[in-house]
Amino acid sequence: MNVQKEVFELYKTKRADYSNLQGDPRGSFVRSTRIGIEPHIAALVRLGDKFTLLENFVRNNSYKSHDESVRETVLDIASYAIITAMLINSRSKDESI
Q: 0.85 cut: is pTM over it?
């Protein structure tokens, strides 16, 4: 399986746990507006969480309490990056980031 397909398959699997907005990859990020957080900011925070997870792996040479592989973390980062780009694209053309 190619990497792009792996990213998509992992995204679909995890989306079922995180999003109740069927078909909308922005699902849980769009809901962040309920608490006053722009969706692209919520996605960037999630990307930061994943990078922190990788940093801790490098420091400790293992995940202490996380049940995903480093490869899965990297695939998640790819997925979140794509979703973040979509969220940025969906903002008004008058707004710049």
A: no
8 Å CB contact between 84 and 43: yes
Domain count within the chain: 1
DSSP 55-86: HHHHHHSS-SS--S-HHHHHHHHHHHHHHHHH
In a domain, 96, yes or no: no
- The answer to whether the beta carbons of residues 52 and 46 sit under 8 Å apart is no
Mean pLDDT by 10 residues, the chain (97 residues): 83 67 70 91 93 89 78 90 88 62
CA distance 20 to 57: 31
Go through 22-41 and write b for each residue having 16 or more CB atoms within 10 A of its CB, e for each that does not.
Answer: eeebbbbbbbbeeeeebbbe
Residue 28 lies in a domain: yes
12 in a domain, yes or no?
A: yes
